[in-house]
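Schema walkthrough. Field components (list of strings):
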Amino acid sequence: MSRTAGLLKRSLPAAAATVGALMLLTGCGGAAVNQSAPGAAAKTDCGTVNVALNAWVGYTADAAVYNYVATNKLGCTVVEKNLNEQISWQGFASGQVDVIIENWGHDDLTKQYITDQKVAVDAGPTGNVGHIGWYVPPWMAAKYPDITDGKNLNKYADLFKTSESAGKGQVLDGDPAFVTNDEALVKNLNLDYKVVFSGSEAALIQSFRTAEANKTPLLGYFYDPQWFLSEVPLVKVELPAWTPGCDADPEKVACDYPEYKLNKVISKKLADSGSPAAKLATAFNWTNEDQNSVAKDIQGGMKPDAAAKKWVDANGSVVDGWLK
Amino acid sequence: MATLLQDRPAAARPARSPVAGRRVSRRTWLLLAAAVLWLLGFLLLRGTGTLALPASELTDLHRSLNRFNGWIAENRDGNPVFMYILTPLRSAVGLVAGFFMAVFAASPTGEVIPVLGWLGTVAVLTWIAFAVGNIRVALLTAVVFTFFGIQGLFVDAAYTFALVLTAVLLTLIVGIPLGVLAGTSNRVQKVVTPVLDFMQTMPTFVYLAPLALIFLIGPASAVIATVIYAAPPVIRLTSHGIRSIPDNTREASDSLGTTGWQRLHTVQLPMARRTIVMGINQSTMAALSMVTIAALIAAPGLGQVVVVALQSLDVGTAVNAGLAIVLMAIVLDRVTTAASQRAEPGARRARRLSGRARYVVLAGTLLLTFGIVQVSRTILWAAVFPARLNFGAAISDGVTAASGWLQANLYFLTHSFRESVTVGILNPFQSLLTETPFYLLVVVIAIAAYAIGGWKLAAVTTFCLAVIVSLGLWNDAMVTLASTLLATVIVMLLGVVFGVAMGRSSRIDAAMRPMLDAGQTMPAFVYLVPFLGLFGATRFTAIVAAIIYAAPVAIKITADGIAAISPTVVEAAVSSGSTPWQVISKVQLPMARKTLALAANQGLMYVLAMVVIGALVGAGGLGYDVVAGFVQSSVFGKGLAAGLAIVFLGILLDRITQAAAATPGRKPGARKT
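Field assembly_structure (string):
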């Protein structure tokens, strides 16, 4: 391979020399700065916990507090992994994720990983309650007070017309990670609307932000708790109330979304290990206000760890309850 | 996000014959007939046979594809393919990635200080840039990597760099031998080409989740996904480089009695060297853009910063990280370009330093580098970038303020512009595509394809359309096609206007290049949020994003084509009294016709590569199906099918534009589908 590529010829010895030098240095640099990193809190009956970090701030708040307590009170080594929900669940099967600290429903994934494959277990509610539904920006609720009743939506359909909605009113859907019944709802409630898919949560939030700032009409799918609601308090539109079983057939849904009791999911491996981290995950429970206070600090620019410390210091008795 | 350069042999050119004049008229006649048929069908049968499938509904095919995920999960442990091939492969890749991450970014055990401190990393990389390139790119490397520290992103940048390095090394190990094989054997070439087409047009979102399932979450999967995405350019260009060696050179070496192996390493590889290094350059750029997307499966680095910032709509932080990615792309591009110029035959003689002097300088600077590395391993300020030099927050705040101002003050302007384009052009065009019965549209497109490229092309297009129909996604595909074609037309307009300006003036060229590089390498995630603020969650926003990504390549190709026209021809036109406008329209554009066709083809492919990203901001169509399939396991199968539909749409458009470019007469691109 003498003359294959001048580049390779020149760079290979260079690379080899570099690597060689690195190895030499690794050997002789005895007092290198990075030798002192681990070893501070090595109470190892907890071991390593892999916590999935889904990106919304409410989740981040939950995870920050869980991780803070697990690290500082139990001596666990917490490894955080930024993943979306679907990929996080996959991590249970591959053994790379141990904890999902805030789960929104996801019946399909529950069935696949908890019921069928038995690689994960439900670790009980977080204490937070989630509401999914249709929301309008606050200026609209103030100007058209009866708009929050779903029965009046057809009256206002013209307001919500956009270039995307083919002459009908627009219902803007958001993050594709959530199951929506919106197309069925429009059909079954005889609404003169069309569902338009914005394609991401970012797109949905930005749309609501613009709508409130410029006082333009917008009707969209949203959910609470969500940090954005502390910036713009969207108002929920009441559709026919949810009753058990009314959403059993996805094609015939004509009722609002149920309340979601948000829960935690942990890997079977962690649950069976008897690790204190598993106990903490099961015991973890707080209110929407608690979550919002931490989420607001994080959204305001505080590091998650610092925000968690602030809350834990102020709520010592709650945390002690988890650790009992 | 397709590759930066696709190099294919031009489609078979129909024989030029005296009847060419008649052929053209027959072609026009056929195209007209197709257009009339289309319009009539649209008017009479509008709304029938549209094959619309609501976003939340699935076909049986989608349901059976859904089972793919479960199947992998069940088989991972027992299946020999996993035990003996995939799992060892993953460990090996993970080991290499882990090594580079430990050297530059941080050790896998979670310590935050890498083996080389930041100063050491800068020194080593600068020295490498000097060794393979020249002093100028070395300085650029030093400045840019120090700037990462000032941005407060040194560790993230180092992670990204380590992953790109791992992926490029693996890409070369796989790609160059494959490229050599494809260059020397027609049979291999025939098998490899469609596979590469497939790898380049398949949206990355489609295979990211299954890859994470097969190779688990983390750096190893990220590297493997990156290799899949980055390998095609180097394979294509290696093969192209070997194939474009003149026949007589080959024959000369054959007549000296060289064996195949001797011929390869004494004639073919050295002569193809420059093209191969260009392939390495293209693969490196592709790897960088993919490493960003791989953040979605937990690849560490700058991509993480961008993705997390997008979630809380933090434009400032996203732009800061995006800027770092652009700068890294520029460094990688300039260093590999400098290396390719150095690899040019004859470059050796033009050097200022003689061979021995250069080695002395290299050795001296290497010693200095070791000294710096030792310093950065023992002194804290040289190991961890000093926090008080961190201006990342200031950069973010400035950008956030600027973007907030733009959104607040330009909204009504941008809003009405969007409305007029959407209502005036996009909506009518889209309904022409979506509301014409599918069988009629297939016939229309087949007739047009026959007119442009004969029976073979008509057969290929009909096949592609049939696949799309059978995937159950015809209507979504037509929604996507409408936006794609509109975006491509705008890309070509920009390509011609700016390309001509750049081709005619080297000063404009120099001013535009950095902006074009930024448009091509800035991750789309970064500018989606401000665009959403300006244009809302609409198809128009998606089109604008696609134009930002695709216009640079069309402009660059056009500019190269215009600049390559022999100056004597232009001078002759000027001296015979032509106005600049006449020179452009009568001499330069017609002479660059082939380049323009290539620009249109590449522009189209780039626009198509943004279909999925566009779906994140309201494009709908196939892109939305892919995005939903990535995040929701119950529609995974539909996402996979949509990915396939995008591939076949890509093949169809690619073949038609190539054939249109190869046929004589008429301006390319001014043709209906």
